[in-house]
Amino acid sequence: MRTVQLMKMLVAAAALAVIGSNVSMSVATVGKGRRRKNSVRQPLGTGGREELDDDAEGDMKVMENTRVKSCSHYVHVGEADLTAYHDKLSEKIDEVIEQSSAKFTDFHSGTTPWKPPKIHPEQLETNPGQCDPKNTNFTDSTDFECVRYMADHRNWESIMPMASVLSIARTIKFKVRFKSGAEGVLKLSQFKFLNEPYAELMGYEVDRALGINRVPPVAWVAIPVSWVRAVAGTMPPMYTQWVEKFVFGNKVVAKGVKTRCPFREESIRASLQIWVEGVVRYRKSSIYLNRNQLKSKHTLPEDPSLTPHARELSDSIVFDYLICNNDRTDKNTFAVPPRMIYLDQGSSFYGRDPPKGTPLRLTLKKRPTMCVFSARLKTTLEKYLGKKRLKTKLNAELTNKYTDIWSMVHKWQTGAVQSRLDDLAKVWAYCDAEGYSAYI
To answer: How far is CA 82 from the centre of its chain?
Structure first.
């Protein structure tokens, strides 16, 4: 009898253990997608298979657009690639990593393309034909297909550091070569240029919302920290240490490092814009006009064939005014005749006021020096005047399309776009009252 009772007690204990285990598992899985409080976070960029962060569910929505259906098909970076990076981090260098205007070390483009690990399934499931680098006639359908193609990491052939030269372009950025042969510019947040990728994305959305269609398509992507480090490891030690200090060593950027699909390792957000071929400096293009010719209806070129060129220039000035782009200098103004093309919006959205040097500033002491506007663009803008109409549209687009965008973008920035638009209406009124207006 004692033996039988002992056996019953053992069976009961085993059953209780199983029930307790199931209860623990149920509690642990409540709030799917969230890390447990007691879970151990892997060091930055080590590729640990920790539980997915809060934005994983949103990433799955993004993956639906690229037809990547799950987080199971990931491959980690080879140890040799990361060893080269960490060896260069520990190497002593003579230069001080300041990268300021007063003390900046230039870097030429990388010479060794880094090939990402293969992601399965390997076949391309999106149409590369819609990402034509020679096409500047952007439409909703070509935008959708091109963005989807760029966002699918299986279409990435290689990644290589781009030149960082103080007199031209001083930020850390990379060129992605796609399997179709097209290329794209990948931009990251970094010290001194925290808005860089977000400004590119928001500039694209403002351009499309207003129907200007001069910004090449921009995809919002996640890139593993290990990939960035492996690419930087192909460069000299100072460049490697610059990336580590200005990107991953920055507290604001570090907050955006999370585990995301499809990699199951830590990654950061980046903008990826198609590289357009045939681009020339605006000043050297066949459609170039001097800004002074847009002062008023009296300064417009008499040749009617130049009217489209005047419209192109006017639209670009209005666009930069709305997004507060303080970096549209000669070096950053481009064209693919007969159109202008808006590249490099990375220095936009930093302030509430209009950009410095804009001819559209209207204050008690300063009057606008441009009164020539596109009639089509003015009609579109008037639909968004007042009642936060443009702000509401932009906030909805950003929220619906992009995961964790509000971790860096603030709603005062879209509100500032609305405020500048409302101020632009005062410029139109001033030009009308003075008899300077020309709507072409």
So the answer is: 25
**CB-based contact 150:221 (threshold 8 Å):** yes
Triad 207, 213, 215: Cα angle to 5°: 70
| Distance separating alpha carbons of residues 345 and 284, to the nearest angstrom | 21
Q: Say which amino acid occupies 435.
A: G
Q: Rounded to whole angstroms, how far apart are CA atoms 371 and 161?
A: 42
Within 211-281, residue ranges assigned H as helices are 225-232, 237-243, 251-254
Distance of CA 13 to the CA centre of its chain: 57
For residue 204, the Cα-to-chain-centroid distance in whole angstroms is 9
Output the DSSP codes for 360-422: T---SS---S--EE-HHHHHHHHTT-STTHHHHHHHHHHHHH-TTGGGT--HHHHHHHHHHHH
Structure tokens at 385: 């005047």
Q: pLDDT tens digits, residue range 114-158?
A: 999 887 766 555 566 778 999 999 999 999 999 999 999 989 999
Provide the residue count of the chain.
440
CB within 8 Å of 30: residues ≥ 6 apart: none
Q: Closest Cα to residue 429, out of 351, 373, 387?
A: 373
* Alpha carbon 249 to its chain's center: 20
Kind and range of the H or E element at 160? strand 156-161
Which positions ≥6 away from 18 have C-beta within 8 Å?
A: none
Bridge partner list, 223:
268
CA distance 246 to 63: 29
Q: Name, in order, each residue with C-beta under 8 angstroms of 384's C-beta and a sequence gap of 6 or more.
A: 390, 393, 418, 421
Task: Indicate if the pLDDT at residue 25 is higher than 70.
Answer: no
259 CB contacts (<8 Å, ≥6 apart)?
50, 51, 52, 53, 56, 265, 266, 267
- pLDDT tens readout for residues 363-418: 988 999 999 999 999 999 999 999 999 999 999 999 999 978 888 888 999 999 99
